[in-house]
Amino acid sequence: VGDASILARQIVAVTEITGGSAQGEWFATPHVALRGHVTYGGGSIVSEAWRQTAELGIDTRNHELGQVQLTTYDVAVSVWPFVPRSQGFAPYVTVGIGTANYRLRETGDIDGLFTGHGVRRRRTMAWGAGADMAVWPSVMLRVEAINHRASLPFEDGDFALDGLSRDRLRQTLADDVSNVRFSMGAYVYVP
Hints:
By secondary structure, the chain is mainly beta. Helices cover about 5% and strands about 70% of the residues. The longest helix is centred in the C-terminal third of the chain and has 11 residues, at about 165-175.
């Protein structure tokens, strides 16, 4: 940051991803299912920055840098220790692979700090757990938590930075990010 008397930190995050999803399953055996899942949502790319100087104290600024639309596709295998519909509570685990498509659009806020735009595709790994609870003979209430692990949707050229900041950004962009989805819904089992 040039002056040793200045401490600074900036966080860039994707927030408020909301939307809908659809899922289908096919039971290959009574305990194992193949599943496909699609989600769609949108949110904001935000920056929270703070700095501390001898003259100003702590200065905090929040900015919206851009908009993002997120679409994910994944296929997975789910394993149930108990056959679903055979008892009132049937827990399961699931693991799979997929892709996350981020459509980025800059807003032009704060002097062009964020310049990312276009579609970014990232491979994902998905794993999680859930349970089906009987409501009616063929209707189940499903609760699940799934973690989609992917690399960040940003690239080196997305930010207008100086050399030192750009080197730190390259290290950060090598990291993966978790997108955890909690859901609850009704499922109808068709014979």
